[in-house]
Amino acid sequence: MKITISAIKADVGSIGGHIEPDVSMINIVKKRLEAAKGVDLIDYHVQSVGDDIGILISHTGGVDCEKIHKLCWDSFIDAADVARDKGLYGAGQDLLKDSFSGNVKGMGPGVAEMEFEERNGETVLMIQADKTEPGAFNLPLYLMFADPMHNSGLMLSPKMSKGFTFNIFDVEETEHNSVISLDMPEHLYDVTTLIRNNHRYVIDTIFSRKTGEIAAASSTTRLSLIAGKYVGKDDPVMLIRAQGGFPATGEILSPFTIAHYVSGFMRGSHHGPLTPVPINSNVSFFDGPPIVTAIAFNVKNGKLSNVVDCFANKFWDAVRDKAYQKSLYIREQGFSGPAMLEDSELEYGGITERLDKLKDKFQKREK
Fold first, then answer.
1. Out of 9, 105, 131, 233, which one is annotated catalytic?
2. CA-derived radius of gyration, the chain
């Protein structure tokens, strides 16, 4: 059975600044999705990460299905209306357009979708982050699909022996989609040369070279490049198929033990560790730290069964403690050096404006 899994998320309002969405916002999204169940969709799951609401939907409409995208758009509109009624902060923040126009790509919400022929024991993970950018997933995806230090299946499983193809977007090219396809492991150095720059080059999809099947899909939208100004961090989402000819669930989760430094945090303008947390977790330290959640589930005839919160396991408490310490260490530097992003990536214009004012006050001095 050919199934489409769609993961769509957005920040449409939150309590106390950027802490978390109101429960009534979650409930109204669930209400609209429940009404569509059995008509436009097969099954769904809703959860939050930080101040974002994440929608997971299974259906048979294919990628970019207008009905599914409109359903999610309307759900976010409903939630934004609740946020306005309650006087919450940032109501409708990620909804950058006034009306729906076919699909939500380029309209603000993060989108990751994949269509595939359902396997026996089809296992999928939905991983979503808050207070960071899509490039935050570059390193984990590389480690999941190209590094035997995290994915031992690359050595042990004949089904993965040929490696994977990485499709990488140049997200700064806004006039058209600019993508390069590189086979791993042959092009390992080329891939790493690109994805070290999380701001510009973002892994979009990954495919098995043995079967040609899709293995992973990630959102690549950068809101500031769409809106032309800062409107909130991009807060990515991705879908990954597990087991069989793909990495095992444990190999997918392994890279998140690093809690690697990513951009985001307060005002989207600082570096902080990507911290694995349970679903529905909020943020409260310096509008962060950047956080990531993961759910694993099985798909049978399109139904999402046995949704598991991966980072709720007690093992991850030790990783969280490490991430919290990394947060405190880099925050001790305040605005200095690598603690804050480079000028071109600052999400607010205050520093640029101040530098422009100071520029003409510099005087030439003889050497």
1. 233
2. 20
Nearby residues of 219 by Cβ (< 8 Å), 6 or more positions away? 110, 111, 112, 134, 234, 236, 237, 238
Smallest CA-to-CA distance from 219 within 236, 240, 239, 207 is with 236
Q: Active site residue: 74, 78, 230, 324, which one?
A: 230
Residue 367 falls in the annotated catalytic set:
no
Q: Around 43, how many Cα atoms within 13 Å sit in the side-chain half-sphere?
A: 14
Provide long-range contacts, Cβ within 8 A and 24+ apart, for 317-323: 319/256, 319/257, 319/259, 319/275, 319/276, 320/275, 320/276, 320/277, 322/259, 322/273, 323/259, 323/273, 323/274, 323/275, 323/276, 323/289
Residue 314 annotated as catalytic = no
Query: Active-site residue 359, yes or no?
Result: no
Neighbours of 207 (CB within 10 A): 19
Phi/psi of residue 83, nearest 5 degrees = -60, -40
* Spatial separation of the C-alpha atoms in residues 264 and 271, rounded to whole Å: 6
What confidence score (pLDDT) does residue 234 get? 72
Q: Decide: residue 118, CB within 10 A, 0-12 exposed, 13-18 middle, 19+ buried.
A: middle
Angle, helices 138-146 vs 188-195, to 10°: value is 160
Residue type present at position 323: A
SS3 assignment, position 360: coil
Reading the block at residue 184, the tokens are 């791993």
- Residue ranges for the chain with pLDDT beneath 70: 222-233, 347
Q: Which of 9, 11, 51, 326 is catalytic?
A: 11
Q: How high is the mean pLDDT of the chain? A: 93
Distance CA 288, CA 13 (A): 16
Q: Tens digit of pLDDT for each residue in 282-321? A: 999 999 999 999 999 999 999 998 899 999 999 999 999 9
